[in-house]
Every structure is written in structure tokens, then in C-alpha cells.
Amino acid sequence: MEIGGKIYHFTELNSTNDFAKGLLTGAQEGTVVVADSQRKGKGRLGRNWYSPEGGLWFSIILGKGNGLLIPLMAGVALCEILQELGLNVSIKWPNDIVIEGKKIAGILTELEGGRVILGIGLNLNISRFPDEIKEIATSLFLETGKTYVREEVLKLILGGIERGYESLSNGDLQSLLDKWREYSATLGREVEIKTPQRALRGRAIDIAQDGGLLLELSDGSKEKVLAGECSLKGK
Ligand code: BT5
What we know:
Blueprint: E1 7-13, H1 16-23, E2 32-38, E3 56-62, H2 69-84, E4 90-92, E5 96-99, E6 102-112, E7 115-122, H3 140-144, H4 150-169, H5 173-183, E8 190-194, E9 199-207, E10 213-216, E11 222-225, E12 229-233
Parallel strand pairs: 1-2
Antiparallel strand pairs: 2-3, 3-7, 4-5, 5-6, 6-7, 8-9, 8-12, 9-10, 10-11
Helix pairs in contact: 2-4, 2-5
Bound molecules: biotinyl-5-AMP (BT5).
């Protein structure tokens, strides 16, 4: 499947994910929606995503897929491309792309009409962040001092996602999980996972076949978590 065969480009949208959802009927798999800025960029769980001009904000319409494995695959693809660009990136479970703990990219997947909308926000040429996030966010520009041509970076990422999606569709889960382990900033660490129901603390020991995070709790028992907020504790 070709990703980016059709690309819709807007100077401004509320959210590329929302626009992509509105396109679903009749839109081909692999269709991409990109906006220079978003008025209501969305994070997970109704959070806001700061999306001014200078960033790379886009969504891809994919076919059916596993709602947990697709974002893992996208995270790995992003890491590969950012590493090629010389950045020392890692993945904080489930799919924050970080450089020394600061987030450079976020991924939001939504299931709609049996399809997956994969939304990616990458802080490209952003020179400053609002106070609320300036300690936890970074950009390619802030890390390297260079400015990037958005279309070129987009093309690299779409290529990486096309390869990753194809190998997932062919059932090659193992290489995806191995790459994820390689980039992980979470495995081996003491973590706390918070869900609306509970908080769980333990050592992150592996990523499961379904994208869940395996924890070893202090009593030695093991538990798999599929969703939640992860904070890293100590070494
Ligand atoms: C995410 O949410 O990390 C998913 C972000 C997905 C954004 C893309 S842009 C294209 C597409 N269209 C959309 O409307 N969304 C997708 P989450 O893990 O919930 O992280 C949100 C939190 O990250 C916020 O509460 C802030 O603390 C922080 N944050 C907000 N904007 C940021 C930014 N530009 N860079 C780094 N951190 C940010």
C-alpha cells in the first residue's frame, strides 16, 4: 500500500485527525492530511497538543489494524528517521518520542469506522514553547540549531511508516518488537503506570506481543498493562 499517494494540505485546521475522520468514506488507505498549524491539536485523553506553524502535524488513514501495535510501529519509524538525522531519540512507553526526557514527537491513534487514523506531531522548526511545556518539550531546531524542510522530513517519515506497516501486515511482529526494545527508554526502569482506576508500580521488563508493557511488581508477580500514563522512577 502506498502511503501519501494522496496528500491533502491545509494552512490551518482544527485537527488533522478530525479532518481525516471526516474523509473516511471514499478515502483511500494511505491518504495523508497535513496542516501548517492546528487550532485544536489533540493529544490523548482530551489533552491539547501545541501545534503552531513550524511543526509537522499530520494524519494517515490506515486500514484495519491493531490499535496498540500501529502506534508502536510509528514510534519505531519516527526514531529510525530521527536517528538518521543525527538525533539521539528514544521511546517512552507507550509512544512518546523523547530526547533526554523531553518530548519531540507524539502519536495519537484513533479507531473510526473500522479504520485507524494515525496522527503524528513532530516539533520540527519550533524555537520556543509556552511556559506550561517548555521544560518537557523539545524540537529538532532546538536540538540541532538547524531548520528543516517539512516536505522532506514528511517524505522520509511516510516511507518509514509504509515499510513498517507493510511488515506488520505481513505478520513480522518480532522485528518490530526488537526495534522497539532497542529504542526503549522504559525497559529496565522502575515505573509508575497510572490509569483512571489505579496506579501500579514496578519494573518494566518487556514489551508483549500485543504492545502491552510487562511489569514485575515488588512481590515478584508479573502484570501486563495495555494503557496508562507512564512515569519513570529512579534507575
Ligand atoms: C500525544 O498526546 O503525545 C499525541 C499528540 C498527537 C498530535 C498529533 S498532531 C497531528 C494529529 N492531529 C491531532 O489533533 N493530533 C495529532 P499525549 O501523550 O496526551 O501528550 C499530550 C501532552 O504533551 C500535553 O498534555 C502536554 O503536556 C504535552 N505537549 C503538548 N503539546 C506538545 C508539543 N508540541 N510538544 C511536546 N509536548 C507537548
